[in-house]
Amino acid sequence: MGLACMMVVSLSAQIDTDWSRRVRESRQNAREEYERFRQQAEQDYNDFRTKANEEYARFMAEPWSAFETQPAEGIPKLPKPPVPVLANPNEHPKPLTIPVENKPVSPIPIVHPQPIEPISPAIQPDSPETIIRFYGTDVIFHFPEGNSLHMKDASESSVSKLWKQLSTSVYDNMIAECLQNRDKLNLCDWGYVMMTKQVAESFFGSYTNEAVVLHMYLLTQSGYQMRIGRADDRLCVLVGSDAKIYRFRFFRINNIKYYCFDNSIDCKSLHVFNHAFPKEKLMCLNMTQPKLDVKKTEPKTHASKRYSMAKADVVLNQNLIDFYNDCPVNSEWQLYSKASLSNQAKESLYPVLHKAIEGKTQVQAANILLNFVQTGFAYATDQEQFGHERPLYPDESLYYPYCDCEDRSILFACLVRELLGLDVVLLDYPEHISTAVCFTEDVEGDYLMLGNKKYVACDPTYIGADIGMSMPSMKKYSPIVVLF
């Protein structure tokens, strides 16, 4: 009996050993197979990207075409009331159905361009760190050592030669770190264009042709649709955009606008390398909230005149204000209206407003927020404050001395979305910007219908007006609706 048991145990142990060995071998084979697949995939990717850059460099060496410079488009001057309109407290007009002009303007999604294939960083253990100061924030990069690249001139052949030198694995880490820092800092496309410019100039020097080619290379490899131009012996990057950007010269190439943000180049025409890189996409000006180090501003008080509890000393991030100040002014209202307040602004403002609207109905809470924006901010037109039209992001309305109708509407829309959780739209009138809110409660007043949703008028520039009251001078118009 004992011998039989020992034989069974021995046989069982042998079976377990064989089974464990087969499992280990199977796992090892799977790992080896995966590694072969990974290496082949990486090789295929490297071959594809290498071939794409080789072809790009070959076309780059051919003569570039001349394109005429298009003058910068001036920011349209929008007629606005010199002073805000005061509501009659005894006014109770019959509710008006607001007619809508055309189809609503839909929001633009935030989708970053991407490389033709993922680019993995390959930092060497002893790679020195280079710190770039980006709007008060230290950003770390590991640049290749022993940089000896140099262009003898700005000719096609010189640009092509430098492109080939950059198109090696040595510079892949620089691209990968740019993309990583784009995500880490939550940069919009414009922010990424500015950061990569700093990277290129930190590596090659400011206003050098080598820096321009590297900037172009970093953006192109990141998936952005760019072109490079030459005026005499100077090169410049031309940024393709899907929005109308004011105050910068541009080139219309294949019915696409490419903007020159280098104001030091002043010429009537450029020779442009006009060749597409695989899977390139235009820069979008949709704003994300960049994660910048905080440099606190001095507190500024904003208070509702009707509701004393809606009073806050607001502290902002000066680095973010500086970033917004450099962003190009564009024609897309929805890009401004989708922006949120910064965390710094929310920390000082939202607890006060949360307490002010706590326990209130949607109508009561919306009226508190509406009066806060109506009466807590001094009014002036953009012409008076800046000398030109300039829509403000919500943080900027809290920062600058004055704001006008579109700024108030953008800020109010932000507060309604984030504090009340209600859907809101902008109403773009010929001479005015207002808002309308979709309440889940039954609310009376002027309204418009979008599908089966009712949006009630809320005007942040009609001082003292409650929700449901449209500015009398606007009732003769059909606004364009801007969705978020």
How would you explain this protein's 3D organization?
- There is one protein chain.
- The chain is an alpha+beta fold.
- The protein folds into 2 domains: 85-109 and 289-482, Roll (C8orf32 fold); 111-273, no CATH class.
- 37% of the residues lie in helices and 17% in strands.
- The strands form 6 sheets. It has a 6-stranded antiparallel sheet with strand order 1-9-5-6-8-7.
- It is globular, with a radius of gyration of 29 Å.
- The N and C termini lie far apart (82 Å).
Topology:
Elements: H1 2-60, E1 65-68, E2 85-86, E3 130-134, E4 137-141, H2 156-166, H3 172-184, H4 189-204, H5 209-221, E5 226-231, E6 234-240, E7 250-253, E8 256-260, E9 269-273, E10 300-303, E11 311-314, H6 318-326, H7 333-337, H8 343-357, H9 362-375, E12 378-379, H10 382-385, H11 394-399, E13 402-403, H12 405-420, E14 423-429, E15 432-438, E16 447-450, E17 453-458, E18 462-463, E19 480-482
Parallel strand pairs: 2-18, 12-13
Antiparallel strand pairs: 1-9, 3-4, 5-6, 5-9, 6-8, 7-8, 10-11, 14-15, 14-19, 15-17, 16-17
Helix pairs in contact: 1-2, 2-5, 4-5, 9-12
Distance between the termini: 82 Å
Write out the strand line-up for the largest beta sheet, numbering strands in chain order: 1-9-5-6-8-7
CATH topology of the largest domain: C8orf32 fold
Return the structural class. Answer: alpha+beta
Number of helices: 12
Q: What is the approximate shape?
A: globular
CATH architecture of the largest domain: Roll
Sheet with the most strands? 6 strands, antiparallel
**Percent of residues in helices:** 25-40%
Radius of gyration: 29 Å
- The portion of residues forming beta strands comes to 15-25%
Number of strands: 19
* CATH top level label of the largest domain: Alpha Beta
